[in-house]
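Forwarding the complex inputs:
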Amino acid sequence: MRAGEASRTRVNARFAILAMAPAWIFLAVLIGYPLVTVLVDAFTHSHLINRTVSGFAGIANFEKVISDAHFLPAVGNTIVWTVGSVVGEFVIGLAAAVLLNRRVRGQGFFRVATFIPWLVPIVVAGMTWEWMLNPDFGIINSILTKTGLVAEPINFLGDKSWAMATVIFVNIWRSFPYYTISFLAAMQAIPAELHEAASLDGAGAWRRFWSVTMPQLRSVALIIVFIHLIWTAVNFDFIWVMTQGGPNYATITLPILIYRYSLQQYDVGAASALSTLMLVVTSLIFVVYYRVRRRLSDEIVG
Amino acid sequence: MSTATRRIAGKSLTYLLLVALCLYTLFPFVWMLISALKPKDEIRARTPSFFIHSPTLENFVQVLVQHDFLTYIRNSLIVSIAACALSLAISLLAGYAFSRNYRMKAVQGTSLAMLVSQMIPGVLLLVPLYITMRNLGLLDTYGSLILAYTTFVIPLSTFMLSSAYDSIPLSLEEAAEIDGAGRMRTLTSVVIPVMVPSIVSVGLYSFITAWNEFMFGYIFISTDSMRTITPAIMLFKGANSVDWGGLMAGSVIAVLPVALIFLFLQKYFISGLMSGAVKG
Amino acid sequence: MRKKLLVTAAVVSAGLVALTLNGCSGQSGDDAKTIELWTSWTEGEATAKALDPLIKKWADDNGYVVHQSNFTYDQIHEKLIASAAGGNLPDVVWGLPEYVGEFQKLGILADVSKAWSSWGDAAKVSDAVKSAMTVDGNVVGFPYETTVRAYLVHDDLLKKSNVAVPTTWEDVLAVGSAVQDATDSSFYGLTGSGVRSPQELLVYLAQEGVDIADPKDGGGYANTWNDNPDQLAKATEVFQFYADLMHSGAVSPNSPTYGWEDTDENFATGLTASFVTGNWLAERESSNPDTMGDVSIHPIPYPSDGKPATYLESKPVFVMANSSSLDASTQLAEQFASEKWQRAAFADRSALDDVTTDSKWTKDFAALQDTGVTFPPISLGEVTQNMQDALAMVLQDGKSAREAASWLGDAVNQSLADSGDSGN
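Prediction (whole assembly, three chains):
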């Protein structure tokens, strides 16, 4: 290594540290304290309002959480909810990005229209969907029965067999625009010459998509998918607004359990313990993400 | 099939699919809009319908005049734009490090820290963040919301921007450096201009996250004149009744500014706009 | 060169941050002459319009500045918890009766018993209302809104089905699907989930003479069903009533998952012919004129071997214990419950026996106040969840009424232990 290169590496490292410093400050000040609180509370007897409850709990909170009758169903539901949502969001998001990338008349309008679900605040979107899906006076059931597609109105959110699929459907509606925007942005970075070269080679549109576009989207896709896996797993608002974890626990997920421990039972210790468990699992997912990303980066930056 | 026919078929299919997509995304919003235009005795009728017997603007008027919505929009704009700008600045720097120095232990550690920060459920952030803002003396100020929202969006912004940096070849930077530009100069004048679509998409994400945020909006802010728009909309949901007209009108009003901003910005997603600069 | 740039950037951003952090503040701090008031009214509605000038006048007359902010009750609840933890409580807060037990445990409520005993209107308030805001022997609030539930009936629908207004459970069950068959509307409304369902269950239990938790000698509360076969049998009757309602066709098959939004809506639109609910439905007369024109108000059906009862919801306005202007805050709180303010803003939902309107929505409801029951002053978060779960056992899982009752007894005791309400 030449002398210049060695000092360049050192300067690289120093710059990197300085570049990350502002982010670190924000995270440390605003997330550091809550994070430490959560980790400490997980091992403490902690009650939100009952001051007499205190002291080191060892793994008692974890035991309570894992032996909760709703724990395993919540784990199952969380997995279904997360994977179902992310897969749906990815497919529709990517398809929408491809469609919106093509030059068509009214492109601007279509893009804004696709974007709208993301703009509506979750609570409002939840309430509106709940209203539309209502079996007695919701517009969707009204349309379904009037056109004869179904004989009886479907109690989308109140029927155990429909509830989870329905909340996933609404979640996909809400979240896929983000994928679309990100894919659209990434598609702009693909040099036009790559497409030209491929079509000169006789590749049709479909083939070009797979061999030119998709590989370039890998990096973005990886991040979006992983981040959404985490967000969806932690997501609480949608299900809470529409079903509160019901009907009769059919849509209960781990974040809802955490909410109930914290604000219904006031058991902060249990809430923190469950949260810590989720944190550990995410970190494991992160390790996987990091491995894949490193491989990707090695290919790109070299 | 001749190429011309194929092209027409392709275009028609595209249009068809786009229309179907629009139906899917716009259906609830259209329902919201129509409901907002219905008078009180039509909104919650026994049989729901898209048809309005006597359309009215009274819900919108009520929301804008009686409920101070313009103030709330102003507050949300200030907070969201500030959070967006601040987080972009921070993430552009951190994302660069993530992309170019991914092997560094410090980078991996920061990556993990950012991801972990996304895993803390809001309900467990409630009390600690409140105490923090109290200690910083920021309760009931724009600052509390700006800082909180910035922190929430930094992780994803950083990851997304680092991925955008990934698609910019090192050769671009090296060329600039040979010309004598310092690292910051290279970043600001050569690299970042090429990343505009990604910056726009990340900026939009931060803005919308801040705009739509609900819980900390009412936890940190107690004064009506400082209130942001989403907590204000939720006030229409009362203890025993919901003012659906107001709720729908308020929501439509909340969506419009952002939709307009996006309409303006979406032209940055035009293919070919930037690809020329990446050549060579 | 680079260093200079970085330093400049750092200084500029620090400046920007400082500017933003200090920009535009709201509250003016813990000024002894300032009172922080949190309400939960509907902006622009009659109540808010009436109270605004009254509050201002009181503030001027007494030399105080009142900062009033409006929130939903859920928001108030979470803000109070955060404020309690952060040591930044307001002075006067509109509350819900459910909060009495838990806020007392948080130690944030001021004891206003003394103010109550010298309060001029105190004699006009019923004992039931007073005890709804009494915990550990202390009175912790003034009643600003007091309502009960009643049995609302669409006379036209019942006439069309040739059904008389039921007065007992047996009457209700006997109707079966008669109304459904004749009119396409279900007969009786039932809230199976959400915040309203434990309130309904509480009333039915009270009608059979059982409580969800009884005070123990020496402090604390406990559920005694599983120790007392008589009580268990009565509780079982209640759950059996729910099950029978489902089987008889008198209620909609979707009832198990209905929340108050659905059931109120169903009654207002005529989808349900009769329902137990509150007098806030009065406003639906203007939004649903064709279906709400025929409403008559009756006592809630009770079992023929039981007694009448209804749910008494008496909302207390709280004063925070460490308010820097405790006396003035207490005075302000008292104002909300005073005759003048009640007449001006709460005429149709007042705890004072001489404040009322001529409308059936006030009179017929007020007539039922004597039979009103409330939850005991315990932490309700988990207990109400247990009650909903027990209902689900019967309505959704097909479990027996006895199983549900027995399970609920144990679950409530567990919850009481967890929240520190079981004494000793």
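The domain at 34-147+312-369 of chain C is CATH 3.40.190.10 (D-Maltodextrin-Binding Protein; domain 2).
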